[in-house]
Amino acid sequence: MLHQLFYLSAMKKWIFMSIVLLFCSCKTLYHLTSKNRNPVALTGSAFYREAVSMDWRQRDSFALREILNGNLPEFLNLFTPVPLSVTDSSSGKTISATLFVTADYLSIGSNNDWARIPLTPMAAQIIADSFHCFLPTQKLVDDIYKHAVVKLSPVWMFAYRDSTPTMYHHHLMVEGLRQQRTGLIAGIKKDVILTNQLINTSKPNRVAIYGWHQPDGKPIQPVYTGHVNRYVDYSHGIRLIYRRMKVNHKWMDVAEVMNNQLLRKLITYEAEGAILRYTF
Predict the structure, then answer these.
(1) Residue 11 three-state SS
(2) Could you give the CA distance from residue 50 to residue 161 in angstroms, rounded to a whole number?
(3) Distance of CA 229 to CAs 9, 12, 201, 225, 278, Å?
(4) What is the pLDDT along the chain (280 residues), one digit of tens a residue?
(5) CA–CA gap between residue 28 and residue 22 (Å, rounded)
(6) Pairing outcome for strands 79-87 and 94-102
(7) Strand-pair category, 241-242 with 79-87
C-alpha cells in the first residue's frame, strides 16, 4: 500500500513537472520576451515626440532601452511560423522546416498606440541577441514575403529620409494602407539583413539592406551594402527570427543549420552560408 502511494505521488510530481516544463518551453519558444509591458510605458507616438530632436545615437539608445524593457505591442510578442523546404538532389527527398518570425517590424508602444522604429544594425543586433534571435537573410525576406497575409506596396518618402519625424510619418502612412488588417505583414520595409557581402568587402562597418517587395513579388531594393552602419532611414525595418527552428520535426539552432551544406539552403542563397550576426 505504501509502495503504491509512493508511486502515485511520484507520478503526480512527474506529471506536474512535465506540464510546467512544457508550459515554460512553449512560452520561451513562441514569445519574443517574457517581460510584461508596463501599462504606463511610452506609447509609440510618445516615443517619437520625445525622440524628435535626437541624433541617431540618441534615438538608438532610447529605443534600445524601451525595447529591452519590454515596451512592445502585445501582437509583436508572439512569433509567427513560416514554412520552408529544400530538396536533396542526391536522394530526391524534400526537407521541410518551420521558421518563427515576428509578425511585423520592431515597434514600440501599446496595441492601441504603437510605432515601427528603424534602427541601426548595432542596436538591432543587441536586441536580437537579447531575445535569442537573428536577423534575416535575403532568402528569408523572400520567404516571409511569400507567406505574408498582408502585402502592401512600398511607400516612398523623398525628403529628410533619415529624420525622426519622417520615420513616424512613414509609419502612419503604412498604417493608413494596412487598414487594421492583421497577420504577417511584408512589403513595407527594406529589411536589415545578414549577408557575406558584409565581410567580403574592402569597406568595413556597413549595413546590408534588401526588400521592399512589390505586388508582383519583385523587390525594389536589391542587396545593398553602400551605407555605413550608422545610417538608418525611414525605409529600414528590423525583423527578428527565433534562433531555433524545426527541421523535419527536429529542433535545431540556426548555427547548426547554417553549418550543414544541404540544410543551409533553407535559409540562404549564398553557397558558403551567410554570417549569423553583425560584429562591431
Answers:
(1) helix
(2) 19
(3) 58, 55, 14, 9, 10
(4) 434 443 344 444 444 433 333 333 334 456 887 788 999 999 999 999 999 999 999 999 999 999 999 999 999 999 999 999 999 888 999 999 999 999 999 999 999 999 999 999 999 999 999 999 999 999 999 999 999 999 999 999 999 999 999 999 999 999 999 999 999 999 999 999 999 999 988 889 999 999 999 999 999 999 999 999 999 999 999 999 999 999 999 999 999 999 999 999 999 999 887 789 999 8
(5) 10
(6) antiparallel
(7) unpaired
Percentage helix, strand, coil, to 5, in the chain?
35, 25, 40
For residue 96, what is its C-alpha cell? 521541410
Q: Cell numbers of 170, please?
A: 512613414
Residue 227 has which C-alpha cell? 551605407
Place of cell 532601452: 65
